Amino acid sequence: MSSDAPTVLSSQSSLPSHSSGTEKTVVLHNDSSIPKEVDEELTNPWDGYEENEMPEKTQSRPVFTVYCRLFSVAFITNMAVFISYAVRGYTSEKVAVVVVANLFIAILMRQDYTINLIFFILSSVPQSLAARAYHHGGVHTGSAISGIIWLILFAAQATKELAHGQEVVAQDNLSSINTNVSSLQVSTATVAVTYVILALLLAVVTFAHPSFRISHHDVFERVHRFAGWTATAPVWVQASGSVVWKVVLLTNDFKGGRSLGVAVIHAPAFWLMIILSVSLILPWLRLRRVDVRSVVLSNHAVRMYFEYGRYLKCIHSQCLNQLDTPIPGSFVRISSDPLFEWHGFATIPEPNMKGFSLLVSKAGDWTTEMIANPPTKLWVRGIPTTGVLTIAPLFRRILFVGTGSGIGPIASHIFAEKANHRLIWMAPNTRATFGDHLVDQILSKSPDALLYDTHKHGKPNMVKLIHHVVDEYQPEVVCVISNNSFTQKIVYGLRSRGILTLGAIFDS
């Protein structure tokens, strides 16, 4: 950055630490390459920020986030279909197709390839839209909740039809002239399977409630995974069989005059279930155990290095794509016990270096175990998936704000050097916690970074401090990587004053 004023570093200087252990603040003058030591108490880059007056808030707290708006779109669309069915009439067969369609969308919105495609597409549109790409989970939850409501309706309708012996009419749609009309009745098996699916999906939704998901994340993950897998089999039986043309369940009694092949080809829910099932299975087809080199940075953090990579030849060119090579802002899932728990961490790829690294800090039993007993092998599945900071290169001037190990996803962009940026990194005992090597790497690429040591200086008023830097640096966007409560506080504190601010929404 060009400026007449000197660039001031905090006590975590980009220069190698002195053997004497004495911390110095260094000022690097733009007109001289010779460092000059100055009085630390007078030259902290944040000095005086508390005396600054904050501008009044010009925007109220949003009633609906983009996530909630996407949820509402999915839910209201379903309610429109519901009203249409209520006016025109419906059968359990029609409702079943809507159930499967909603579950299809919900699952697809959590698939690695789908998420990457969303970010890829939105990277080509105006920044205001692309910057909200990480709210795609709203479609997932909106469709999932709607699907369960439709399933409750289906269960009620199917039970009613069974109890009253109602028959539904199935028509041959293979031609414009219906030559084959048969009466079909919902079976006891269909109703029983429906209630099994409903119980499983209600368990998934209950344990996914934000308050429970945050406080008991491991339980949430296991219920989400195992109940979801268990529900898939009966949905296959129900959606592809007894409800939609009765292809599997009680086929001989309910397929009418159709052959099995014809019935399958013309069942919409069957094809939705095909894609849904492939979406669920695909990440597990890429399950593998890989080597990992672990470097313990302190009793609070460990940095893990991965060197694996798979190369696929492009179909229409001579280039090679690295399918497993992450991009700045992406994350991977790792595990020591692949059946029961998975943990997502931001990748830190470095230019001209094979593989990538992860920064794991103490935040629970699993991470504590990784630090105490560094692994040499870990399980990975799926592919690197785009995260909230993937959209950072769309902006020309970025202010990154990270706390603790939140430097991980930020570091990948700093190392890539694709955008003009400024960094605020707040952590206790930064060098003692994260090691000289990582800190020096960061400072070599971001020499004007503001490293705020909370152990030495106490916790600051971060909204004021960030606003102080925003006034000086004038970024197009502020990107915050921290815990949930801190992120929400900073995002609201800055957005309410008209500053574009992005932060993770912790929806999974």
UniProtKB/TrEMBL annotation:
The keyword DNA repair does not apply. It comes from Armillaria luteobubalina. The keyword Transmembrane helix applies. InterPro entries: Adenylate-forming_domain, FNR_nucleotide-bd. Residues 38-53 have a biased composition (Acidic residues). Keywords: Membrane, Transmembrane, Transmembrane helix. This is Non-ribosomal peptide synthetase. Residues 10-20 have a biased composition (Low complexity). Signal peptide: none annotated. The chain crosses the membrane at residues 66-87, 99-122, 134-156, 184-205, 226-248, 260-285. Residues 1-54 are annotated as: Disordered.
